[in-house]
Design goal:
Layout lengths: L1 H13 L5 H11 L5 E7 L4 E6 L14 H7 L7 E3 L13 E3 L1 H7 L2 H8 L4 H5 L11 H4 L10 H14 L2 H13 L10 E7 L10 E8 L6 E7 L4 H15 L1
Antiparallel strand pairs: 1-2, 1-7, 3-4, 5-6, 6-7
Helix pairs in contact: 4-9
């Protein structure tokens, strides 16, 4: 076990990975399920390593995956805010109580992000390579409905950029999401976020689940975006974690 651990540490230190073609073949072979779409990027270069996505440049709704972008573009000091649940349009009926940004990211609190979305610098989103919604209401900016579709490749690269430029509170929130929040099913060391969005397929389901992970947190090497047809984001997080553990 110690030899394996030392080997892994050496590989991580020099940035060694499986050759791109080998990684792509491994994922294609071991994750053949037809309801799965994914994009795997080399994080430092933003290069696509492996992809099974019909058209990664076609914008699709991605749900709560956009919430960290709102925190990035927020103009002001992050404050503690009270979430009263349904009264504040949050998905958790009973509410999250009083919370600060890192936990708001971890539990994907609608109430917290609706508050932030009223004071954002839309130009800051452009610096991440993102186009803003045609009607940038607070609801659209936090991913409710289908008002802010993003191309999966653009989204994944924006997360890579976010990692290098976001305030520490944002990164803490993404780590908390993977440890104990909505992304906890990922079960690996990562900055992560989940989302559930309206179904994008001809055969309609209640929604599609998304998960994105930047792995590992020490020196991030991979950015992996996963989508599962007709499943919640937590299910996508579980598959995302399984894929990351297979590629190292």
């Amino acid at each position: 076990m110690e030899a394996v651990t030392r080997r892994d540490a050496i590989l991580a230190a020099v940035g060694a990975t499986l050759p791109d073609e080998s990684t792509a073949r491994l994922l294609e072979r071991e994750f053949p399920r037809p309801d799965l779409s994914y994009l795997l990027l080399d994080l430092p270069s933003r290069r696509v390593i492996a992809s099974r996505w019909p058209n990664p440049n076609r914008p699709v709704p991605v749900g709560s995956l956009v919430k960290p972008f709102v925190a990035f573009a927020y103009q002001g000091q992050f404050l503690e805010i009270a979430c009263r649940g349904a009264a504040d349009h949050c998905w958790k009926q009973a509410g999250h109580g009083r919370l600060q940004l890192p936990y708001a990211i971890a539990c994907s609190c609608n109430a917290y992000f609706l508050n932030l979305a009223r004071t954002v610098d839309l130009a800051a989103l452009a610096t991440l390579g993102l186009q803003t919604p045609l009607d940038p209401t607070p609801e659209a900016l936090i991913g409710l409905g289908n008002q802010w579709p993003l191309a999966p490749l653009t989204l994944t690269r924006a997360y890579c950029e976010l990692l290098t430029r976001a305030k520490p509170e944002v990164l803490r929130g993404l780590r908390l999401s993977a440890k104990l929040g909505t992304s906890r099913e990922i079960r690996c060391d990562a900055y992560a976020k989940t989302g559930t969005a309206p179904c994008r397929h001809e055969k309609r389901s209640p929604g599609d689940g998304y998960a994105i992970a930047l792995h590992p947190t020490t020196v991030p090497r991979f950015a992996l975006l996963v989508s599962l047809d007709g499943a919640p984001g937590s299910h996508a997080a579980k598959v995302c974690g399984e894929m990351l553990r297979r590629i190292g």
